[in-house]
Amino acid sequence: xxxxxxxxxxxxxxxxxxxxxxxxxxxxxxxxxxxxxxxxxxxxxxxxxxxxxxxxxxxxxxxxxxxxxxxxxxxxxxxxxxxxxxxxxxxxxxxxxxxxxxxxxxxxxxxxxxxxxxxxxxxxxxxxxxxxxxxxxxxxxxxxxxxxxxxxxxxxxxxxxxxxxxxxxxxxxxxxxxxxxxxxxxxxxxxxxxxxxxxxxxxxxxxxxxxxxxxxxxxxxx
Length: 222
Prior knowledge:
50% of the residues lie in helices and 14% in strands. It is α+β, with helices and mostly antiparallel strands. Strands 1, 2, 3, 4, 5 and 6 form a six-stranded mixed beta sheet that branches. α1 packs parallel to α3 and α4 packs antiparallel against α5. The model is unreliable at 5-10, 12-20 and 66-70 (pLDDT under 50).
């Protein structure tokens, strides 16, 4: 028979799980959100049902469970590690940054001297070998999903920069699709000049902001 606290925790579980079903999320976002929601739900139930639990313990359990679940929504498998190593080798000396994110995604950050000239979205010649090797790793790991985010510097207005950033992500997706990667696995976004990683105060810093970020996730199972 449920106690009042257990009912409260169960309600938290239902809300947390339902909240993860947003239709407008990318597959990667859904994986992370589902992990967080389920983790929060389980944490809340455990916290409430533990001896002397109380609402405070249920809340703390939900917070801790959510934090752990967010990472568990995307997994870092041997395949992901192998893909990371392959891309590190393929991009060595190019300036492309390859890393593992805190939520277990593979991140490639491609700077402007590799990717795009000012005001342009066409794929540069020295970007193509990187994308060719990347496409190969994606075809070897068909369970992964990809998010490509385009960025610009602050040259020009938002009316110019936003569609330009989307077009850069779109061109990158189309290039990968042309090398056998299923385009349905790829989500694109454009952030315009809203997320600079440098000051935009000079040509070098603007070049750093003119970039593409690519995220790869392998979804947790069960």
